[in-house]
Amino acid sequence: MRTLAKQNLEDIVVGCSFLGTGGGGSFARGMQRVYEDLQAGLTFKLMSPEEMQDDDYAAATYGVGSTAPPTDEEKQRYAKLPRIEEKSTTAAFRLLQRYMQKNFVATIAGEIGPGNTIAAMSAAAHIGIAQLDADTVGRAAPEIDQNAVLAAGLSITPAAGVTQYGDEMILTKVATTSREEDLFRAASMVSMGIGVADTPLAGKDAKRKGVLVQGSISHAEEVGQAYRTAIEANQDVIQAVLHAGHGYRLFEGRVSGFQWKDEGGYLVGDVGISGSGKYQGSDFKIAYKNENLVSWRDGKFSVTCPDLITMVIKESAKAISNPDFEKGQDVIVIGFPSPPNWRTPRGIELFGPKRFGFDTPYIPIEQMQWT
Amino acid sequence: MRNLSKQNLEDIIMGCCYLGSGGGGSYEAGLKRIHDDLAAGLKFNLISVDEMKDDDYAATTYYVGSTAPYTPEQIERFNKLPRIKDEATAVAFQLLQKHVGKNFVAVIAGEIGAGNTPYALSTAAHLGIAQLDADTAGRAVPEIDQSTIFAAGISLLPAAAATLFGDELLITKVATPSREEEFLRIASTISMHIAAADSALPGKLLKQPNIVVQGSLTLCEQIGKAYRVAVESQKDPIHAVLDASKGYKAFAGTVSGHDWADKGGYLVGDVEISGAGPYSGQRYKLAFKNENLISWRDGKVSITSPDIITMIDNATGRVVLNPDFRKGQEVTIIGIPAPSPWRTAAGLRVCGPEHFGYDASYIPIEERHRTGNI
Q: Which residues of chain B are within 8 Å of residue A169 when distances are taken between CB atoms?
């Protein structure tokens, strides 16, 4: 167990921005949350799965928002309802604990992303327990099905939901994984949001290889730290990030065009880059659904999911969130190997390029031929 | 405990029509459900509240449907989901039982209605347990608030719910009582229907007065039997039903007009009748929200909820459910006293005429009859 200092937390947010592959929530919101929570005197603790007792439990906790704005009639009705004092995510975590009657010692992050990982850590700090040094993806991912615990054949239920008014519910079983999201989103529509706690995991399972992505928060911290120390020492920042993340430089050039749209709540689009320097005469394209998923060099498939593709601003070496790129912007594209959890047949089925409609087999980034 | 024969069950469903106050679900659907279950070899047992041990439990189970039409995208999504083989109400009931961790011996009906009471009976038969000879309304009612358990100030929670796809959930706490229905209804919009089970109560509590309407299924059976025997022996079925239900004849005449609409999932409207025979020259009007709630004779209040108001077709002696009346139909209006839980202050608060927005105070039908004011 380790208490995280402000600098550790900042490093984690920065590291998450490189591992978020263009998604994973807002960097600014992540940083803001760290400062607000520290200001409020909260303590952030990190514990490794190894530190859990076999019958200790950890669970994920997050908020599900309503997409439809409330009508005046709804606002009036909600205004009459009582409010609970704690955050709804905290209340949901406590409800799950009460329902299962187990000792819950840590929260699990739902993914590695600059906004969303910090949201999980903030929930842990509010509850007053540790964040597990692990998550269910090892990067940011667009869909609820890209969850390593599910890929390992374990269940995300029971799941607890609590509204800000104090309504409490427990999903004991779901027909399909996406039904959890459907049902909690429905409940959030009559509650202006709902706090959820799910994926209760016993220490013995959390420690098992291939269930969680272990050490992922420390890994993000190392990447963020490498970024910071390289800047401080006037060294090549991208080189330092690639070294810490065991990544590869894929392309360099100028943003030549892009398109994107909102498709059922997802940001779906692509961005094209014209090569410069040693890549002069070549072009590169990245397609994304919230997160970057596949890439092409000169029309031929390059790195694909589940491996990570991240676009970086050449001048500042900062990771770019979709769709914050600009035409004419000088960028560098880097890639990192995905966690081993996704490199199984089931993992490829849930997170390979075919899953998102791209007709190409998954070739691990290490096996790609670089020219 | 008594095993119900096909005839007992048919009598119960027929009796439910008369206590349905114009609603309570389809008679044909109720009858079909019971016939299907009998054909499948299921057994129907009825136990009285007094037969329950103090620490035995019973609970209600019912479906919450969405009235909003589904989009083609939703239907496509529903079609991709798996379907459970069991009755969803039975799944919800079992989930509730497991969560509460007590010995559940019977199903409590949510109301008395020709379509809805057979649902409870059928769920009990599917679960292999008994139907309690009791329900939480003693008639059919439009809203979830009209539960005698709720009126007695007892929480309906925990509630269990199950979808046709195999999702299962528990509601363990709500900010206000109406939030339970709100959650079930919104969940039903993404699930076609959702089955719920709640009001898990021990025998000790159920035996107390005014918690549930005791003996209500037996009363239905008596009314249904009275109807059947009268028809078989060529006697007046309406008279027989009034006898069995301790009811009063309020009016007779010809349907002269009606007006109704779907309002937020409720069937809301009214029907007018021109008097015939001793009522010649008089006009009668019934207003309903799914169930008949109030009636007027020549503009003066005749009968109000929670007392039961039922329209009968003169030619057959059978009940006319809303909105199956037609212009020119010759009908008789009868009133039946509400069960005692509704006649308490708490009962009237949720089931009296004021609750439904009518500027009338409740006067028991016996009192109205005695003073010649029906």
A: 169-172, 183
Domain for residue A222, yes or no?
Answer: no
> Which positions in chain A touch B175 (Cβ < 8 Å)?
81-82, 163, 165-167
Asked which of A200, A216, A232 is the last residue of a domain, the reply is A216
Mean of pLDDT values over A340-360? 96
pLDDT of residue A67: 58
Rounded Cα–Cα distance for residues A168 and B179 (Å): 10
Digits of tens for pLDDT over chain B (374 positions)?
A: 999 999 999 999 999 999 999 999 999 999 999 999 999 999 999 999 999 999 999 999 988 876 566 788 888 889 999 999 988 999 999 999 999 999 999 999 999 999 999 999 999 999 999 999 999 999 999 987 899 999 999 999 999 999 999 999 999 999 998 899 889 988 988 888 899 999 999 999 999 999 999 999 999 999 999 999 999 999 999 999 999 999 999 999 999 999 999 887 788 999 999 999 999 999 999 999 999 999 999 999 999 999 999 999 999 999 999 999 999 999 999 999 999 999 999 999 999 999 999 999 999 999 999 998 88
- B244 contact partners, CB below 8 Å, separation of at least 6: B15, B219, B222, B223, B225, B226
> What residues contact residue A28 under an 8 Å CB cut-off, 6+ apart?
none
Give a yes or no: residue A238 inside a domain.
no
According to DSSP, the residues that pair with B169 across neighbouring strands are A171, B161
Q: Are residues A278 and A211 in the same domain?
A: no
How much is the ipTM here?
0.81
Which chain A residue's Cα is nearest to B174?
A: A167
Judging contacts by C-beta atoms under 8 Å, the chain A residues touching residue B95 are 172
Q: For B186, which of A168, A173, A187 is closest by C-beta distance?
A: A187
Would you call A315 helix, strand, or coil by DSSP?
coil
Q: Is A169–B182 a contact, with Cβ atoms under 8 angstroms apart?
A: no
B152 to each of A54, B6, B49, B158, B350, how far by Cα in Å?
Answer: 47, 34, 17, 17, 11
Chain B residues in contact with A88 by the CB 8 A cut-off are none
Whether B74 is covered by a domain: the verdict is yes
CATH assignment at residue B76? 3.40.1610.10
Residues B182 and B252 in one domain: no
Asked whether B166 and B208 are in contact (CB, 8 A), the reply is no
Q: Residues B158, B303: one domain?
A: no
Q: How many domains does chain B have?
A: 2
Specify whether B37 is located in the same domain as B171: yes
How far apart (Å, rounded) are the C-alpha atoms in residues B115 and B265?
Answer: 17
pLDDT at B73: 84
A287 to chain B, minimum CA–CA distance in Å?
Answer: 26
pLDDT in the model for residue A66 = 65
Nearest chain A residue to B169 by CA: give it. A171
In a shared domain, residues A301 and A201:
no
**Which of A168, A178, A180, A184 is best to mutate for the B interface (most B CBs within 10 A)?**
A168
Q: Is B233 within a domain?
A: no
Chain B residue at shortest CA distance from A264: B73
**Global pTM value:** 0.84
Nearest residue, CB atoms, B169 vs list A95, A165, A170: A170
Contact (Cβ atoms closer than 8 angstroms) between residue A233 and residue A128: no
Final residue belonging to a domain, choices A194, A216, A238: A216
Q: Are strands B45-47 and B130-135 parallel, antiparallel or unpaired?
A: parallel
d(CA B27, CA B25): 7
Nearest to B174 among A99, A167, A186 (CB): A167
Residue B263 shares a structural domain with residue B185: no
Whether A239 maps to a domain, the answer reads no
Residue B236 lies in a domain: no
Q: Residue A344 is part of a domain; what is its CATH number?
A: 2.40.390.10
Expressed as residue numbers, the domain containing A123 is 2-216
The reply to whether A186 touches chain B by the CB within 8 Å rule is yes
Structural domain for B58, as ranges = 2-216
The answer, for A95 touching chain B at a CB cutoff of 8 Å, is yes
Q: Are residues B310 and B176 part of one domain?
A: no
